[in-house]
Each structure stands twice: as C-alpha cells, then as structure tokens.
C-alpha cells in the first residue's frame, strides 16, 4: 500500500507523538550511580581511552528489565534508564577506574592533546537482574597499548551481587555495585 508523502509524514508524526505520550508524567528515570570508592589502587593503566561498552541487545533498551521466574526478560512499566545504557555504563566505568586508581580513564573520543597510553574494550555478555535475586554482570575486557611499551591484557569477568529490595530502584543500585566491582577488577588488571 502506498501513501502520498504528506500522509506518510502525518502517520509518522502521530506514531512519534503517541510513543512520547506513552512515556509521559508517569515514567520514572533511574540513574546508575555507584558511590565513590573507599580504596586506592596503584595506577596500572595510565591514560586509557575507554571504548563504548558493548552490551547484549536486550540491555540496550531504554526500559529497566528484570528476569521473571520463567526466564523471560520483562520491561518494567514506566521505569526507564536516565541515560542510554551503553553510554551510562561506559561513563560509570571510566569514572570509577579513575577514582580507584588515579588513572586518566576517559570515554571515547579522546579529548586531550596528549594521546592515550592504552585502549580499553569491554564486551558484556550478560547484564541483568536475575530471577534468582542476583544481579549478573559477565563478559570480557581487553586492554591494549596504543603508545609505548606494554602488553595486551584479556580477562573475563563474572560478577554477581544481591538485589537488595525489589523493583527498578533495586536493579539500578545492584547494577551500580556490580559496575564498581568490574571497575576495581579492571583497575587492578585482575
């Protein structure tokens, strides 16, 4: 079926308005905000450019999702992430790595005149609030030298933290704690 150009524009506009109206005043936005680390690690990374974290497809949605007893991941009605998930995870990890170790960890693109010493790539295979009452974060990270000497580092991570409470706020808090643990592992190059 074909529509005249004006009709297509009208239909698209109505769909966009309907979608935005569905996210109206009843929606809550959730931040992933880990506390500042209470420890200091040696700076093993120097200046490191953090590539945008690669998340599994289900974790890129704007809605907070939780796993149900049947294994299905369900979006929580009116519960949205305050920032795009990959960008938020990348920003949190860069901030936590810097705070933990004194490294200059910066999300891409590199903004400083002197280039990075290393590049950090993180590929997440699982990031979810499980039906088992735990928040799961697993995958791999890769640190590669950009300038000067160094060696490639490739490590796996498998982190689980308890969900303290229920609902989207508990998911956001557990995700923050899991990301803080991952940042510590990366900063220590464990």
TrEMBL record:
The keyword Signal applies. It comes from the Bacteria. Residues 30-187 form the ABC-type transport auxiliary lipoprotein component domain. The keyword Calcium does not apply. SUPFAM superfamilies: XCC0632-like (SSF159594). InterPro entries: ABC_trans_aux (IPR005586). Keywords: Signal. Residues 1-21 form the signal peptide. Transmembrane segments: none annotated. This is ABC-type transport auxiliary lipoprotein component domain-containing protein.
